[in-house]
Write a structure and sequence with these properties.
alpha/beta; Rossmann fold; 2 domains; 7-stranded parallel sheet; 6-stranded parallel sheet; 15 helices; globular; disordered N terminus; binds ligand GMT
């Protein structure tokens, strides 16, 4: 009994009270932040989400998960509602009321600056903050002239900085001339939740999941389907929504493919959808990592992706998936056709994909890296 009590006491010290901020809508950074929060809560940490809406995958019924909404009052004088300031106030308030040990913000702008303000407002004790950079916060927003200085400043002021790939780490340190330590903590997947289908689906199904922004090149998925259908009676599922959905729907009609493409819109429980497919298409212009590809790999669904950004850190070409040049429809279609027509090849790549997810990117491997980072910044 005494031993149990001692062990509990020892563990108690390691539990943290953490505030997490992310973009709550569909998008990789919000998904990673939400999954991370839920994994931390399952491990005994107290997790407080601070955001303008309930993050899309967040299950608030999970013990030790709390959600604090940020309300932005809009006065006629404000041409732009000052979300960053409302967020900073809420962060400082939640930190004081719940005794937070640290803040962890996902996506630099404006979350990192809000965290810095909250830290400065919390004068009576230390409130360190960790910033995780996800991709477009550096490659698009951060490189925009109007945001460059503030992005650089927010990185320099963070008590801990992580990026989700080595590619993004290098891009960040080179472009912003950052000399402080930037730790790579890759995206992760819960391999108990994301499981292969048993048996494999009967129809040849291609799947694309994204927020349909131009960087995702969703039209390429339609063009790939057109090529694939010259050899295989395949269909394409398009999950998600965003600015390029309409143009993609029109393209499907123009190419005579309307009956073979299904636009599913925003989907919950993506772990139930992925195993119904055979191949994941990720034809992005840029991908700092490629979370959708990892989730597919955990379900033993091979990805056909593009050789861009950090994708090659995840996918080993010809071993657990394929990476082909951006915009090369012929090469990407050829890979999808190979997978759909060669059962032995398919089994080999699908098995290797699941193994990569399990051995390198499952939650049990990655979450402890964040926990270690928290211990370090709390000091
Ligand atoms: O572009 C997106 O899909 C959303 C974006 C974001 O910042 O929310 O995703 C980025 O973060 C994901 C999770 O860390 C990465 O897996 C994606 O590769 C990355 N997207 C880009 O770099 C375009």
């Amino acid at each position: 009994m005494e031993r149990v009590r001692k062990r509990r006491r020892r563990w108690r010290i390691e539990f943290v009270k953490i505030g997490i901020t992310c973009y709550p809508t569909y998008g990789g950074s919000g998904i990673v932040a939400t999954e991370l929060g839920m994994e931390l809560a399952a491990r005994g940490h107290d997790v407080h989400f601070i955001s303008y809406a309930n993050p899309i995958r967040l299950d608030t019924a999970i013990p030790r998960i709390h959600y604090h909404e940020v309300e932005v009052s809009n006065y006629p004088l404000f041409h732009y509602p000052p979300y960053c300031l409302a967020l900073a106030s809420r962060m400082a308030e939640v930190a004081a009321v719940y005794g937070l040990d640290l803040l962890h913000v996902h996506y630099a702008i404006p979350h990192s600056i809000a965290a810095l303000l909250a830290k400065q407002m919390t004068a009576n004790r230390r409130l360190p903050f960790v910033t995780t950079l996800h991709g477009t916060d550096i490659t698009l927003v951060g490189m925009d002239r109007s945001y460059f200085p503030i992005t650089k400043f927010s990185i320099e002021q963070s008590d801990g900085i992580t990026t989700i790939s080595e590619y993004l780490r290098k891009k960040t340190t080179d472009f912003f001339g950052i000399s402080k330590d930037v730790e790579v903590i890759h995206n992760f997947v819960n391999c108990d939740l994301y499981q292969p289908a048993e048996p494999r689906p009967k129809r040849a199904t291609l799947l694309h999941i994204s927020n349909f922004r131009p960087v995702k090149r969703v039209a390429d998925c339609i063009r790939i389907l057109k090529e694939v259908r010259k050899h295989v009676d395949a269909r394409l599922l398009m999950a998600g929504d965003g600015p390029d959905r309409g143009p993609a729907e029109s393209l499907a009609c123009d190419l005579g493919l309307a009956g073979h493409v299904e636009f599913l819109g925003k989907r919950d429980h993506i772990e139930r959808l992925i195993p119904t497919a055979d191949v994941l298409l990720l034809p992005s212009e840029m991908e700092a990592f490629g979370l959708a590809a990892l989730e597919a790999m955990a379900c033993a669904v091979p990805p056909v992706a593009t050789r861009t950004g950090g994708v090659s850190e995840l996918i080993t070409h010809g071993v657990d998936g394929y990476v082909e040049p951006v915009g090369d429809i012929t090469a990407q279609s050829a890979r999808a056709i190979e997978l759909l027509t060669d059962d032995r090849l398919y089994a080999r790549i699908a098995t290797a994909a699941r193994k990569t997810a399990e051995t390198r990117y499952c939650t049990s491997k990655i979450i402890p890296l964040y926990e270690r980072m928290y211990t370090r910044v709390i000091g």
